[in-house]
UniProtKB/TrEMBL annotation:
Name the record gives this protein: Ubiquitin carboxyl-terminal hydrolase
SUPFAM superfamilies in UniProt: Cysteine proteinases, RING/U-box, UBA-like
The keyword Hydrolase belongs to this UniProt entry's keyword annotation: yes
InterPro entries tied to this protein: Papain-like_cys_pep_sf, Peptidase_C19_UCH, Ub_carboxyl-term_hydrolase, UBA, UBA-like_sf, Ubiquitinyl_hydrolase, UBP13_Znf-UBP_var, USP
Enzyme class: hydrolase
Species this chain originates from: Tegillarca granosa
Gene3D superfamilies reported for this sequence: Cysteine proteinases, DNA helicase RuvA subunit, C-terminal domain, Zinc/RING finger domain, C3HC4 (zinc finger)
PANTHER family: UBIQUITIN CARBOXYL-TERMINAL HYDROLASE, UBIQUITIN CARBOXYL-TERMINAL HYDROLASE 14
Sequence similarity: Belongs to the peptidase C19 family.
Keyword Zinc-finger: yes
Catalytic activities: Thiol-dependent hydrolysis of ester, thioester, amide, peptide and isopeptide bonds formed by the C-terminal Gly of ubiquitin (a 76-residue protein attached to proteins as an intracellular targeting signal)
Residue ranges of every copy of the UBA domain listed in the record: 615-656, 680-720
Length: 805
């Protein structure tokens, strides 16, 4: 049959994507086959869904769509010669994106072999066949010319961002006061007006003062003179000299405590005689300085096991994940999750069933994409060693590229939808929430992590107690620096470091000495009592002092442990504790077992209305909100510090921003919240929550408790299962007790099976890798690189996964 005879019966179902339809031509909706795979990718010419060959017939039977555009792209490595251009230095903090870190970059060329395939006969029609009908040729050209759907979605999410991080326009820019003091800034020869530094200099845009910037944790940077000057004058904006070009420069707002955009920078600089059109970059931007710091930190080499000849691993369970632009946090967490049997059973072993039951839009179905990810990681289909002796140098794709998955789980989220680096622990909790939403009434693999936290508060004066319980999925442990067992060695190292820096020398990363802290000391500190000032005692009917202790009422099958390494310094700069933690392979947490109320203990009365009203200083609340903190948490901070000032409230925020209820609606103790009759839920948000399988009453309650914030409501509803069960019982008119949250419990003794490490100075920059124990051997997963680990850096990790023995 001719091409025309084959295609004419199907013309009514062949379309061109001219109506804004999404075209998925870079990745299969059900697996990670792509145009570079051995069998290529088949794009349905009706729905524009991309399919790997093993899924085409099933899709044809489901939809009766018969015509597919077959995309086949062969990648060949271009041999590098002595005349090849030198490797570019990184200019961005990202990993695996243009301008970012790309340690193993290779050059390739591609050969395209595309055609049309008609099912069920699998007849191949070359695109050069002159018998192809005109409308089919138009459709083929439109599909080939269309941007892939994930690129369009990413572009929409990243609109208006800079390197993945949006810089706000400073509220001080438009009406910035500039003093007429006659000061003119020369084009060079700048020096700090309070010290001798000639680099990292900032020009205050109000009065033209030139001062040095902040001192970084490693001793580099400046002497904080620009910061000190702001505290004296409150002049808000400064631009970093040496970064000014016709396109702008690095502008910092001390009042807003962030890098900002100044749309009037040219005018503000002209006030001091600076012509922005003639300026050239002579100093490092803040991004470049951060890169330099990250590269200097010895943990980069240690965690990635640089210098070791690591043996690559291939086959089922040894598949890497390509970095999609600072997605290493996601890659590490998902690699760890899919080593757990609960996740393997739910998504890998049940993949075929999930695929057959998926919605008409597999790219947007979470369970389908999880099954696809599980199959990609565990099947071994995308983890084969490179061919030996291939003259053509044809290179098979290495690992999988989970672009659809990343787009889906980040959709609508202010952080995970961007290319910014994220906190792996926050992403772990995020993915737990999403899995719970999509597992209602079905097997929920996250149950293996869930444990019951018991908190006991005891009024010191009356001796009476109050017990509360909540669910959690991650045990966050403090890192007590005072528990260091090598303080003398650290002191000697710090002295040597200062001496070398005075000589203009750098210390060898291999000689770095970090405070060494036993993990058991972290556990011990977690179990210690915490003093609560200004505790309102219902027994005394006045404020008192209380002690609070936290225990685990149940112990899960798998325990995720987080070391709280990220903190705020006394200078208010976020920083990471550079410590070495002695982590045992076996961990006994028997000392943390909660036993509930004990004989002889008397509970505090449940009286709610006796506490006197306290007015909250709204000015302090507003100041905290402007710093970027949730308004409800700011109210809590001001209330709990008795309106005693912004610094005291800020300290409270830093100590409590990790509390589970930090951002929940705050009601003054002793007052009553608005009744459910007066609360009006947002109708659109209500429908969104109900679409997850909840009743209208449950959705309304979640929105009421989160001030109509649909995202927080979705998180709230899954962490308050007990209350929802109570509501269901009341609606049914039942007299039986509400169903209690179920927890797995057992022996509190664990063995280490995986850990995730972070390299960099904060969670927003740097790189994550994970190590997983397989067949009694440690394996490193560094994005798409999977290898046998020679020196697993357990002491420098951030998250640890323990399995109950």
């Amino acid at each position: 049959m001719t091409a025309a005879e084959l295609l004419t019966p199907h013309l009514s179902k062949i379309k061109a994507p001219f109506g804004g339809e999404k075209v998925y031509k870079d990745e299969c909706a059900f697996c990670f086959d792509n145009p570079e795979s051995e069998t290529g990718l088949y794009v349905c010419m009706n729905t524009f869904i991309g399919l790997g060959k093993k899924h085409v017939e099933r899709y044809y039977r489901m939809t009766t769509n018969s015509v597919f555009l077959h995309l086949r792209r062969i990648r060949k490595e271009i041999p590098q010669t002595d005349e090849s251009p030198p490797e570019k230095k990184p200019t961005k903090l990202a990993i695996g994106v243009e301008g970012g870190f790309n340690p193993d970059e290779k050059k390739y060329e591609f050969e395209e072999q595309n055609s049309i395939v008609v099912l069920p006969s699998w007849t191949v029609i070359p695109l050069t066949d002159p018998g192809i009908p005109d409308m089919v040729q138009v459709a083929v050209a439109a599909i080939l010319g269309a941007e892939d759907a994930w690129k369009l979605e990413e572009a929409a999410a990243m609109a208006g961002t800079w390197d993945g991080e949006k810089r706000i326009v400073s509220k001080y820019a438009e009406n910035l006061a500039q003093l007429n003091n006659g000061k003119k800034i020369p084009p060079k020869g700048w020096k700090c007006e309070r010290c001798d530094l000639t680099s990292n200099l900032w020009l205050n845009l109000t009065d033209g003062t030139i001062l040095c910037g902040r001192r970084f944790f490693d001793g580099s940077g400046g002497n904080n003179h620009a910061v000190d000057y702001y505290e004296q004058t409150k002049y808000p904006l400064a631009v970093k000299l040496g970064t000014i070009t016709p396109d702008g420069g690095d502008v910092y707002s001390y009042a807003e405590d962030d890098m900002v955009e100044d749309p009037y920078l040219a005018k503000h600089l002209a006030h001091f005689g600076i012509n922005i059109t003639s300026m050239e970059k002579t100093d490092k931007t803040m991004v470049e300085m951060e890169i330099d710091i990250n590269q200097k930190i010895g943990e980069w080499d240690v965690i990635q096991e640089a210098g070791s000849k690591l043996t690559p691993m291939y086959g089922p369970g040894y598949t890497g994940m390509r970095n999609l632009g600072n997605s290493c946090y996601m890659n590490s967490v998902m690699q760890v999750l899919f080593t757990i049997p609960d996740f393997q059973r739910r998504y890998y072993e049940a993949a075929t069933t999930i695929f057959n039951n998926c919605t008409s839009n597999p790219t947007g179905d979470f369970n389908t994409q999880m099954a696809k990810l599980g199959h990609g990681l565990l099947s071994g289909d995308y983890s084969a060693p490179p061919p030996e002796g291939a003259e053509s140098k044809i290179m098979p794709p290495t690992g999988i590229r989970p672009q659809m998955f990343k787009t889906l789980i980040g959709k609508g989220h202010p952080e995970f939808s961007t290319k910014r680096q994220q906190d792996a622990q926050e992403f772990f909790l995020h993915i737990i929430n999403i899995i719970e939403r999509n597992s209602r009434g079905d097997h929920n693999p996250t149950e293996c992590f869930k444990f019951n936290v018991e908190e006991k508060v005891q009024c010191v004066q009356s001796g009476k107690v109050k017990y509360t319980n909540r669910s959690d999925y991650c045990l966050a442990l403090p890192v007590p620096l005072e528990a260091s067992v090598n303080k003398d060695d650290v002191t000697l190292y710090e002295a040597k470091k200062i001496d070398l820096e005075a000589q203009g020398k750098k210390i060898d990363p291999k000689e770095i000495v970090r405070p060494k802290i036993p993990l058991l000391k972290c556990v011990e500190t977690f179990g210690e009592s915490e003093t609560i000032d200004d505790f309102y005692s219902t027994a005394l009917k006045k404020k008192s002092i209380a002690s609070k202790t936290t225990r685990l009422a149940t112990f899960p099958d798998y325990l995720m442990v987080q070391l709280k390494k990220f903190t705020i310094g006394e200078d208010w700069i976020p920083r990471k504790l550079d410590v070495s933690v002695d982590v045992p392979d076996e961990l006994d947490l028997s000392a943390l077992r909660g036993m509930g109320i004990q004989p002889g203990e008397e509970e505090l009365p449940t009286e709610q209305q006796s506490q006197p009203q306290i007015q909250i200083d709204e000015t302090l609340v507003t100041q905290l909100v402007e710093m970027g903190f949730p308004i409800e948490g700011c109210k809590r901070a001001v209330y709990n510090t008795n309106n005693s000032g912004i610094e005291t409230a800020m300290n409270w925020v830093m100590e409590h921003m990790g509390d589970q209820d930090f951002a929940d609606p705050f009601v003054l103790p002793g007052s009553t919240a608005s009744s459910s009759e007066t609360f009006q839920p947002n109708e659109e948000s209500l429908m969104m929550i109900m679409s997850m399988g909840f009743t209208k009453e449950q959705a309304a309650k979640a929105l009421k408790n989160t001030n109509n914030n649909v995202e927080r409501a979705a998180d709230w509803i899954f962490s308050h299962a007990d209350e929802l069960d109570t509501m269901e019982t009341e609606e049914q008119g039942a007299t039986a007790a509400p169903t209690q949250t179920q927890y797995r419990d057992g022996n509190p003794k664990y063995k280490l099976v995986a850990f995730i490490s972070h390299m960099g100075t904060s969670t927003m920059v740097g790189h994550y890798v994970c190590h997983i124990k397989k067949d009694d051997k440690w394996v490193i997963f560094n994005d798409e690189h999977v290898a046998l680990s020679e020196h697993p850096p357990k002491d420098l990790a951030y998250l640890y996964l323990y399995q109950r023995v």
